[in-house]
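Anyone have C-alpha cells for HTH-type transcriptional repressor CarH? Sequence:
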Amino acid sequence: MRTYSIKDLEKLSGVKAHTIRIWEQRYHLLEPMRSETNIRSYSDMELKKLLRLNILYNNGFKISKIADLTEKQITQRIEELLNKDNTDNNVIESLTISMIDMDEARFERVLNDYIDKHSFDKLMLNIVYPFLDRIGVLWMTNVIDPAQEHFITNLVRQKIVAAIDELGPCLDENAKTVISFLNADEMHELGLLYYSYQLKKHGFKVIYLGQMVPKGDVMKAIDTHQPAYVLTSFINSTEKGWIDEYLKEILDSYPTLEVLSSGIQSATITLRNDRLHRLSHVNDLVDLIKNV
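Reply: yep, here.
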C-alpha cells in the first residue's frame, strides 16, 4: 500500500499542511497512520478523501458543515457541483483522483464533459497543461509513481491523437510542410503532439516522426520532404550548450529551414538565429503561424 507524508498531501491537494492538521484534529476528517515515533502517514484512501473535501471547500462549503456529511452525501454534493459548475479547479481535482485510482472511465467522463461544454483547445490550455505541470512536479518529487504518471499521460495522448485524426489529411497542395520530431534522447511527446495538432488545424502539412529519432534520420526526412519548418521539443536536461550545437547543425545544413523549438529546456538556448523560434507557450506558435 502506498503511503504519503503530510507534505505529499500538501503538494497533491494544494491544502496547506497546517490546514490539514486542523481538519484532522478539530473535525476528525482524516485518520492518518502513525509510526512508533508518532510520524503521520496517509493512505491512498485518505488522500482521495482530502481531494474530495477540497473540492467542496473551494466551492464555498464550510468545513464544519462538510464534517457533518456522510461519505455518500459528500459524493452526491461533488457530483452535483461537477454537473452544474464544472470549473477548472474542480476538473483538475477530479483528474487527480482519476490518476490515483487509475480510473479510466472517470477520466474519460470528466474530459468529455469539459469538451462538450467548452472545446478541445480550452481543455488543453485550461485543464491538461496545468494538470500535467502538477503531475510533473509530483513525479519528480516521488509523490506519485511512474505507473500512475504513464497511465494518465497515455490517456491524454490518446485524446490528442484522436483530435488530430478528426482533422483528416491536409489536401492543400500549396500547404507548407512541417516535420515534427523528438531527438534520440527525448520521449516526452505530449507537448509536441499538441503543437503538431495546432499546426495541422491551421492548414500545415505535418509529418510526425515521433519520439527518439536519430539526427541522421531527421536530416534524411528533411532532404526528402523539403519542409518549410521543423518542430521539436526539449524536456530532458542536457549538457550545457548541447541543444545549441544540435540546432546549429540543422540550421547550418539547411539555409532556408525555420526551426520551432518548444519544451522547458528551450529556455536554456543561447543560439541566435533569425530562423530559430523558441516557443514558451502554444500561443507563441499560434501568433507565429498567423503571420505566415
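Residues 3-163 form a domain with the Multidrug-efflux Transporter Regulator; Chain: A; Domain 2 fold (CATH 1.10.1660.10).
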